[in-house]
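Lecture notes, part 5. Sequence design as translation. It can be helpful to think of inverse folding as translation between two languages: the language of shapes and the language of residues. The source text, in structure tokens, appears below.
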């Protein structure tokens, strides 16, 4: 049985902002996604202001899967639904930018896993209405509520260094 999936292409807008900091002179962050954006082979400057510049840095697919609908629900029910953009330090010498756009997702659980990796920058950017509608529709078609089953705790057996498998209570007089 195959799991239902879908994908949508988005452009990722990344901003370089000057900082007034004695250790770091600028910072990178994702600021927007553009549904249906064309592919880019190099970063394209889109807009600039005093101390900041934005680039269409990459075009990637957001992929959604029926098995991850719980993570989509967590995102959609939040204060403001977001698209999570994962940036990673650029290890190559060919690019003039210090970060690469690595991944995009709408799954809150997946984003939290990427955020645990020390070099990743995970930014939540506002989810455009057409992506909200797309994810909501997918969720409504494919979400299956899984009932919570509390596991039964087994009594501790100090002689075996773990739980007893026979269901008996451990104690001194056994």
């Amino acid at each position: 049985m195959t799991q239902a999936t879908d994908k949508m292409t988005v452009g990722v807008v990344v901003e370089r902002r000057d900082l007034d900091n004695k250790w770091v002179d600028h910072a990178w962050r994702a600021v927007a996604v553009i549904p249906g954006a064309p592919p880019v082979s190099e970063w394209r400057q889109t807009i600039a202001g005093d101390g900041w510049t934005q680039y269409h840095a990459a075009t990637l697919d957001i992929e959604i899967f029926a098995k991850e609908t719980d993570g989509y629900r967590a995102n959609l029910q939040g204060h403001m639904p977001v698209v999570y953009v994962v940036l990673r330090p650029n290890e190559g010498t060919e690019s003039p930018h210090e970060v690469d756009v690595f991944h995009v997702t709408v799954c809150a659980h997946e984003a939290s896993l990427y955020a645990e990796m020390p070099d990743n920058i995970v930014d939540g950017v506002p989810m455009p209405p057409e992506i909200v509608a797309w994810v909501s529709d997918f969720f409504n078609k494919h979400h299956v509520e899984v009932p919570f089953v509390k596991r039964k705790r087994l009594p501790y057996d100090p002689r075996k260094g773990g739980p007893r498998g026979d269901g008996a209570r451990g104690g001194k007089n056994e």
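The translated text above is only one of many valid answers, since several sequences can fold into similar shapes. DSSP finds three helices and nine strands in the chain.
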